[in-house]
Amino acid sequence: MVRRMRRLAAVLVSGVVAGALSLGLAGPVRADPAHPVSRPGPAAGVEITGDGMDEPLRLRSPDQRPQVLAIIDQVDWIDRVARLKAPGKSGLGRKFTVVVLVGEKRVRTFDLYPFADGGPRIFRPAKQPGARVVNAGWFLGRLTMSETLRSVGVPVERQFDTLSGGVGGGERVIPEAFDPAQDIDDALGELRRLLLLNVSVVVLITFGIAGIALLIRRRTR
Q1: Angle value at C-alpha 98, between 92 and 102, nearest 5 degrees
Q2: What string of DSSP letters covers 37-68?
Q3: Is the Cβ–Cβ distance between 19 and 199 less than 8 Å?
Q4: Per the UniProt record, which residue ranges are transmembrane (predicted)?
Q5: 57-59, strands of its sheet edge to edge
Q6: Average pLDDT over residues 147-170
Q7: Cβ distance 106 to 130 under 8 Å?
Q8: Which listed site, 78, 90, 127, 175, has its alpha carbon 20 to 30 Å from 120?
């Protein structure tokens, strides 16, 4: 009897330790910014033309890779979201065309409207470089679009986006503070910790019930 109780106690302690270690070691799952899923190859580049630009802006040297990735990050996710209804042309504002390059070859093209009414917009033309044809569509752009364009050398005025708080409302927002991917990662990390906590509680309850059942069985014999 004593030997079995010692074994049961050892199992219970092991369950508690495993649950504690799981909670202590399981941190939020974060995306690795150095290895994004859609990271283009080293030969990738971009060419930007648009309103107010005297000549195209070409970014393709190794030193300009951070700028290339910043521009591609503005458009590389739109295949995973639904298209929008075409907005009115009068409220689109300045237009900038981005062409994605691989070496000297043009592979994709998009039109960016960072100052459109209601927030930045992206238009993907049906006719893409070469013989590639896709479904034309409009998409919401990132709030950081204008600042990203400005940071890589496109002549646009600096602006701070605002989140509307109603009529007359509004809050100054620094564009760098917006990181939807980070927010999702943090939420998933917290969910993981909660699930591990629930599992640990269930394990403890299960072992406790098993121990009580064993004691009752021994005493009823």
Answers
A1: 165
A2: TTPPPTTEEEEEEETT-SS-EEE-SGGGHHHH
A3: yes
A4: 194-216
A5: 57-59, 44-50, 96-102, 105-113, 121-124, 137-140
A6: 70
A7: yes
A8: 127
Q: How confident is the model at residue 24 (pLDDT cuts 50, 70, 90)?
A: very low
**C-alpha angle 74/39/26, rounded to 5°?**
95
pLDDT of residue 26: 42
What pLDDT does residue 216 have? 85
d(CA 56, CA 96): 10
The DSSP element (H or E) to which 207 belongs, if any, is helix 180-220
Three-state DSSP class for residue 120: coil
Alpha-carbon distance of 100 to 129, in angstroms, equals 9
The domains of the chain are located at: 44-158
Dihedral angle, C-alpha 86, 91, 93, 96, nearest 10 °: 0
Closest CA to 45 of 79, 71, 78, 76: 71
Q: Is the pLDDT of residue 17 over 90?
A: no
Contacts with 163 (C-beta within 8 Å, 6 or more apart), sequence order: 170, 171, 173
Choose among 68, 60, 71, 66: nearest CA to 147: 71
